[in-house]
Amino acid sequence: MSELAPERFLPLPTRLLRFGLGLAVIVLLQQFVLPGINPYFARILILAEINVILAVSLNLINGFAGQFSLGHAGFMAIGGYVSAAFAVSAGPAVLAVLGASPEAPGPAPSFIVLCLGLILGALVAAITGLLIGIPTLRLKGDYLAIATLGFGEIIRVVIQNTEAVGGARGFINIPTYAGFFAVTLFMVLTLAVHWNLVHSRHGRALLAVREDEIAAEAMGVPTTRYKVLAFSIGAAFAGVGGSLFAHYNGGLHPNTFTFLKSIEVVIMVVLGGMGSITGSILAALLLTAMPELLRPIKEYRMVIYSLLLIVLMITRPQGIFGLGEFDPARLLWWRRARGAR
Amino acid sequence: MLEVTNLDVRYGAIHAIRGVSLSVPEGMVVTLIGANGAGKTTILRTLSGLLRATGGGVRFLGDEITGLPSHQIVKRGLVHIPEGRIVFANMSVLENLELGAYLRRDREVKSDLERVFVLFPRLKERIHQSAGTLSGGEQQMLAIGRGLMSRPRFLLMDEPSLGLAPLLVQGIFEIVREIHRQGTTILLVEQNAHMALQVADFAYVLESGHIVMSGPAAEIAQDPRVRDAYLGGA
Ligand SMILES: Nc1ncnc2c1ncn2[C@@H]1O[C@H](COP(=O)(O)OP(=O)(O)OP(=O)(O)O)[C@@H](O)[C@H]1O
Ligand SMILES: [Mg+2]
Questions:
Q1: In B, residues 128-157, which contact A (CB 8 Å cutoff)?
Q2: Domains in chain B: ranges and CATH
Q3: What is the DSSP string of A255-288?
Q4: Which ipTM score applies to this complex?
Q5: Is there a contact between B74 and A220 if contact means CB atoms under 8 Å apart?
């Protein structure tokens, strides 16, 4: 299939070069631009980036695979609590091995602890996703939504009653190992993984499952396997988002992970367009910034959300970008074409 | 090539297929005719693994394939073109065809694509059009083309002529003949018994989940009962 649909397959050196360049940009931003930014804006920016991770990963499940999940907050909570628990319990030992002091570990050792916890959190979230996905993904539409909704609430109640992670009081004193650098890096990684996945042969198969399960199955696409796969990958990256949130925020509270959080992410996905990665990015940024812009009428945030959604669903039922991607080149071409006339 | 013995399929309490046995030798076109609700689609779906049989067995090329998941069945070259021109509406014609080759890893996908375009020049003209905007007949061509892209050795076709204008019906049956000429064995389900019996070598008649008659297509076409029930008494 590769010769028919070139998958933009890049040789390894090019990939490494790109990765290195991206890394350099993030470091430069962190070193020279971030200090100049008002900390309040920096906070909103970082939270928005975390929301981008959540929205894009949910889009994989809801948009690309067409399985309506309402459990994203649950997977986010798993990632957050697992990686926080790891940093608090095993973190000092890891730092000791690295020869760093737990009080002031320095950027590199703390980044390593963050990564280990994050990977662990993502893994646990993915495995949970697998366990939930295998039985529930055989269900259709509404049933899946209800099952995942129930799952998210169960996770929250379990956390609320687990004293080891602070129970209903919340998990405090989580080391703040995630800053702009780590969050941006993992956001870019998340985007790269999702972009490559949906533009691969597997992405095409996922879309086929969404479009018509019977036809996909008849063409030899193992539909259940794809649904479960998308569900677990989405769950893993929700775990990544949760883990970053835990280590940025320095504390976690079960009430952060109610089904309202899941719905918030669903809204981002729907608003941006089910099946549009760039749409999810834009919607996540927009919807994170909006409550801040609307600070004077903050109580009405949900009302504005709803109004916005209603207006959008009437005018653009397919979301801002629908199934397509935002392409700056096309925009330029369009403007040039208009200018020429 | 395909042997079905005592196949039984139930939808909950509904007993749709009751002990159906049939066989399709390699290189033949066999047709399965029957009225609405007789169970034709159910049989095809069971053969291709979209449905689970509640009894009986299916052998393909000598191997037991009863209960295998559909992707394993497709891999063996038994391919089902479902009823009702189901295409991936939001994808282009080309993307639909490429999905037909989903399980293939060989390098001949491109030449097969050309073969499909020789069969259906109209699809080539509309290669980047999204499948949902094709006309009904074009969608049926696409559904057939997509099935061919998986390189079937054996094709299960479910009412390819359904809802098409008479001229197109002729064309679709020509295509069925052509696919057969190129070496694919075919089990053809049709309501258009008249055409199906002209194309086929052998025929089975299905009535409420039972096979009630079988024989060479030319003989079945002459049978008074069949003429009354399926050929409009002609
Ligand atoms: N999913 C289902 N659940 C319950 N009953 C079903 C289901 N699908 C089909 N049936 C029943 O099984 C019987 C056979 O249906 P099937 O679709 O196989 O008929 P058919 O011969 O293909 O008819 P047609 O020519 O109208 O396509 C019918 O009585 C139908 O109502
Ligand atoms: Mg039918």
A1: 143, 146-147, 150
A2: 1-67+186-234 (3.40.50.300)
A3: GGGSHHHHHHHHHHHHHH-TT-HHHHHHHHHHHH
A4: 0.85
A5: yes
